[in-house]
């Protein structure tokens, strides 16, 4: 994929956040690769341009938070970089909250144990649902964060939809204009 130089993810724990490494060890699925990248290029547009990865093969993990009866509910949304999550419609209804927003950066980092710009659905708190757009599942391969800004994971899209806590949600995302 592009000019990434990948190898089995568990062979390079230095490219994984601790919760990601632990989750990969317990999940034990073949096909998850990792590649080193320049941490300054971790943001999607810069990463795709530098490493030749098409936007429709790059998936973003967005952490959202909403309250219901004084309890904050979190979820991760996994969608292609060519789409935008329907946060105020589909996601809000799915989580059964009145108001939903993107989690604050400091909050997301503290709760996940991952670096901002590298947050991935692998290794998130187990009570958080992982909402996956069907386009991710249908992709032959997707690149996602590795929990740190200096690494990226590559895996089959179908495998991303099989993550513990993952649920494919129709209408989760809409194509960007």
Structure description:
It is a single chain. The protein is an alpha+beta fold and 177 residues long. The chain has one domain: YbaK/aminoacyl-tRNA synthetase-associated domain (YbaK protein). It contains six helices and eleven strands. It has a five-stranded mixed sheet. A hairpin with a 2-residue loop joins strand 3 and strand 4. The longest helix is centred in the N-terminal third of the chain and has 10 residues. It comes from Catenuloplanes nepalensis. This is Prolyl-tRNA editing enzyme YbaK/EbsC (Cys-tRNA(Pro) deacylase).
Supply Rg: 15 Å
Under CATH, the homologous superfamily reads YbaK/aminoacyl-tRNA synthetase-associated domain
Amino- and carboxy-terminal Cα gap:
25 Å
Give the structural class: alpha+beta
CATH class: Alpha Beta
Please, how many helices? 6
CATH architecture: Alpha-Beta Complex
Order of helices and strands: EHEHEEEHEHEHEEHEE
Summarize the structure.
By secondary structure, the protein is an alpha+beta fold. It contains 6 helices and 11 strands. The chain has one domain: YbaK protein.
Topology:
Layout: E1 7-8, H1 18-27, E2 33-36, H2 44-51, E3 59-68, E4 71-80, E5 83-85, H3 87-95, E6 100-102, H4 105-112, E7 130-132, H5 134-138, E8 142-145, E9 151-155, H6 157-160, E10 166-168, E11 173-175
Parallel strand pairs: 4-7, 7-10
Antiparallel strand pairs: 1-2, 2-9, 3-4, 3-6, 5-11, 8-9
InterPro entries: YbaK/aa-tRNA-synt-asso_dom_sf, YbaK/aa-tRNA-synth-assoc-dom
Protein name: Prolyl-tRNA editing enzyme YbaK/EbsC (Cys-tRNA(Pro) deacylase)
Organism: Catenuloplanes nepalensis
